[in-house]
Amino acid sequence: MNLYREVLDNIPTAAIVVDKNMKVRYTNRAFRECFRAARNRGTLKDATGCTSGEVCGEGVRCAYCPMRSLFSDAMKNGGRALRKLIMRGGEGDISFRIRVTPLGKYYLGVVDDAYATEIAREMYSAQDIQQRLLPPARSGTGAHYSFMYIPCREIGGDLPDVYEVGGETMGFLADVSGKGISAGMLSAFVKAGLDKSEPSPAKALGGLNAKFQELNLDERSYVTAAAVRIDRERREIVYSVAGHNAPMLLKSALGIDEIVMNSPPISGWIPDFTYSDRAIGYGKGDILVLLTDGVTESRNAAGEQFGIERVEDVLRRSESAERFIERLKAALKEFCGTFDDDLTAIAFDL
Q1: What is the pTM of this model?
Q2: Cα(197)–Cα(43) distance, rounded to whole angstroms?
Q3: 59: buried, middle or exposed (CB in 10 Å: 19+, 13-18, 0-12)?
Q4: Which of its termini does the chain have fewer beta carbons within 10 Å around, N or C?
Q5: Is 347 exposed, middle or buried (0-12, 13-18, 19+ CB in 10 A)?
Q6: What is the CA radius of gyration of the chain?
Q7: pLDDT category, 116, cuts 50, 70, 90?
Q8: Residues in Cβ contact with 170 at an 8 Å cutoff, skipping those fewer than 6 apart
Q9: What are phi and psi of 158, to 5 degrees?
């Protein structure tokens, strides 16, 4: 074994060996030098020089990790995968093509060649920018919340946001049409176009709709969204919806209420539509959930949808927003494995 490692350490081709638990069992010298990694084994974070402060595999940004995604695909495809990746190395971005093949009970990743591509660099920069659009992992002085955001591609089209207006917590969740780069650009527009000083969810959606008209996009482009304000003094949730398919859910001592509101999405379909606010009361200990239809419409290998009933079952068994998000992630992973749409949800402890 030592002889094999000595040989691998002295070849110019970078190599990494990963087990089924996403643990790095070995990297050769060329791989460590490429990523400026001091250790030859450990987590993917240790091996790739990731600078995230989160636990490897458990952080929000781990959904974007190209190396994790590559080996995950290999494990679902008989141990084989080939992909062009760009990752952040010790002294800058590294662009390369890596091939994964099965190696007994392990998976061997070999870098075929290293090359610079401006498009790949731009994609990585776009990922980094989009990650910065996400709300903070921890809540401030307002209502405590937890969220998940799992893009199905490098660039996602969902946008969760949590902020405060006049001391009250505002929640916003948008799902733009399309996938990939075009969806990412539209979600960036939504982030910039939402008026965060407006306490009325309906007026905030109306203002966003007016700005959307200025883009003059065709009918294939649209944004569904749900906006809420948690009024702690009156103990009520003020909400408005723009064509959002998945309902909001409110868990209380009496059970779970599905909050549905029929209205068109932000689009050119009905440009002058006036959105309205509605209110529903809540009690101490209740949990409010916003989610995109990517969650409810995720399908397993048999073609069965995850459905709102499974979401409600997870919520029914959850004592807090954080536990709901944790259990929802686990349930989706067990049910679907892989995803064809972005999965996003925000939960608030009321």
Answers
A1: 0.66
A2: 42
A3: middle
A4: N
A5: buried
A6: 22
A7: very low
A8: 162, 163, 164, 196, 199, 201, 227, 228, 229, 230
A9: -95, 150
